[in-house]
């Protein structure tokens, strides 16, 4: 049996980044993901590549600087996925005591992005702001601050292209493979036990080092790998609403109820409103937007967009953050990551943001290389992702896209294709009109039985229903409801 240099558990954005970095350094790598690549926290994100203005208020300058540097890196290596986006911070009825710190914060943000290529900030009058955003509430508007960050329409695709690159450099990449236990030599972890989610087939993979990059499932996976693993995470839920387009720019706003920052972002023809931040103790795979979550965001947004109505919500999105365990309110917990040596042969990565995934992966693989006694230089900051090397072209027809995703991108479910190989699942009807055709092509290519084909369609319909679950009066999942 082959012994890999590195086994990665978890195919979200950070696990994908680790696999790519290690493979590009010439290590033998295997990655296993229980569901589909990028289907967890990565899919539940706000879809921004940004330093995070609010982290300046928390004096988290190290995090902001790292993410601003990585923002520039991603604009360079993934220009087909990561695009510049202008943000406005409107202010209403604000005194000079408010505006002075805002100006200072904007100057500091530009200073920390000293090696960037995006334009610096500027301040706009109320008239200039309304000319750019005519749907904003006019009463009390004094002006706005404008600055630039970046957006990734599909962070799932960012993860998948990282994994494609890893595979092209020799990595073994498998989705639908659940890690069920560890192979041990005394106290040392020397590999993992696996179960294929769809077939039930069991197998093993041996490795010199195992990295647990399972996001909000990290503590659960750690418990299967070692009985004495201590909890590392504090998990919080964030939701988003997809609504009719209300703004041409991204807007940074603050709730009137508790002062929390939230965004209204143009995304795929929608306004993408979010996010919440509430402690969550359930299965991360079952996180849903509840009616209370939706009411909170609507209550936050309607003072700025009075025309917004509950009936305007097309669907919702929910994800669970994997934060380093800390006390305090949910939004006060740092987004900085932490690398932990759990046991000989086992490393865990907790926390982190999508923006910094490549730098986090570099740091993790540096640790792996030191433990393996090899000296290999990271190249991911200057090596474009595969899609960046392709010329722009018209979209092929649907059947060809499905076949390409199956044959080259390990697409094995209808939901894989709709949500993470394309953006069809985020269209106004969430891809419902094309589900039968996609299922037909996949069934033919993958030799599904009629029952399997019907089950795939049913599961996707259930996912769509879950994004509409906030309309139900029944609670979806127990959780702590406190907000700050």
What does this structure look like?
With 484 residues, this protein is of the alpha+beta class. It is 32% helix and 25% strand. The chain has 13 helices and 18 strands. The strands form 2 sheets. Strands 3, 4, 5, 6, 11, 12, 13, 14, 15 and 16 form a 10-stranded mixed β-sheet that branches. Strands 1, 2, 7, 8, 9, 10, 17 and 18 form an 8-stranded mixed β-sheet that branches. Residues 480-484 have low confidence and may be disordered.
Number of helices: 13
Shape, principal axes of CA atoms: globular
Low-confidence stretches: 480-484
Main beta sheet, described?
10 strands, mixed
Determine the mean pLDDT: 93
CATH class term of the largest domain: Alpha Beta
Tally of distinct domains: 3
Classify the helix fraction into a percent range: 25-40%
The Rg value, from CA coordinates, equals 22 Å
* Tally of DSSP β-strands: 18
State the end-to-end distance: 52 Å
């Amino acid at each position: 049996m082959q012994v890999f240099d590195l086994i990665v558990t978890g195919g979200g954005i950070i696990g994908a980044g680790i696999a790519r970095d290690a493979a590009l350094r010439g290590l033998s790598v295997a990655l296993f993901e229980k569901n589909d690549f990028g289907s967890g926290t990565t899919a539940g994100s706000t879809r921004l590549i940004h330093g995070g203005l609010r982290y300046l208020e928390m004096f988290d300058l190290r995090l902001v600087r790292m993410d601003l540097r990585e923002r520039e890196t991603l604009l360079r290596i993934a220009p087909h996925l990561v695009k510049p986006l202008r943000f406005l911070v409107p202010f209403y009825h604000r005194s000079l005591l408010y505006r002075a710190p805002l100006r200072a914060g904007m100057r500091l943000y530009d200073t920390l992005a000293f090696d960037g290529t995006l334009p610096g900030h500027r301040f706009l009058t109320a008239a200039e702001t309304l000319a750019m955003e005519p749907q904003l509430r006019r009463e009390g508007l004094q002006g706005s601050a404008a600055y630039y960050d970046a957006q990734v329409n599909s962070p799932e695709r960012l993860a998948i292209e990282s994994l494609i690159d890893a595979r092209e450099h020799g990595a073994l990449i498998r989705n639908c493979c659940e890690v069920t236990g560890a192979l041990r030599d005394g106290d040392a972890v020397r590999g993992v036990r696996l179960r294929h989610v769809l077939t039930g087939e069991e197998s093993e993979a041996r490795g010199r080092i195992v990295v647990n990059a399972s996001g909000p499932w990290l503590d659960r996976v750690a418990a299967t790998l070692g009985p004495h693993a201590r909890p590392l995470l504090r998990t919080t839920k964030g939701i988003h609403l997809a609504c009719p387009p209300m703004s041409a720019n991204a807007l940074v706003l603050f709730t009137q109820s508790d002062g929390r920052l939230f965004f209204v972002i143009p995304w795929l023809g929608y306004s993408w409103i979010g996010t919440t931040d509430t402690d969550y103790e359930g299965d991360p795979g079952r996180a849903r937007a509840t009616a209370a979550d939706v009411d909170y965001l609507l209550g936050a947004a309607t003072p700025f967009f009075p025309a917004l109505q509950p009936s305007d919500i097309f669907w919702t999105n929910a994800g669970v953050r994997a934060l380093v365990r800390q006390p305090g309110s949910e939004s006060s917990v740092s987004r900085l990551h932490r690398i932990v040596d759990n046991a000989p042969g086992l490393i865990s990565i907790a926390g982190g943001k999508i923006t910094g995934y490549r730098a986090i992966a570099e740091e993790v693989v540096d640790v792996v290389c030191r433990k393996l006694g090899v000296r290999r230089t990271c190249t991911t900051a200057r090596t474009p992702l595969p899609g960046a090397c392709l010329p722009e072209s018209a979209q092929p027809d649907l059947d060809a896209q499905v076949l390409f995703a199956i044959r080259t991108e390990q697409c094995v479910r209808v939901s894989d294709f709709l949500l993470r190989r394309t953006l069809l699942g985020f269209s106004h009807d969430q891809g419902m009109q094309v589900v039968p055709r996609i299922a037909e092509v996949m069934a033919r290519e993958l030799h599904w039985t009629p029952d399997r084909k019907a089950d795939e369609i049913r599961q996707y319909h259930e996912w769509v229903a879950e994004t509409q679950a906030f309309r139900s009066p029944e609670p979806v999942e127990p959780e702590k409801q406190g907000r700050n």
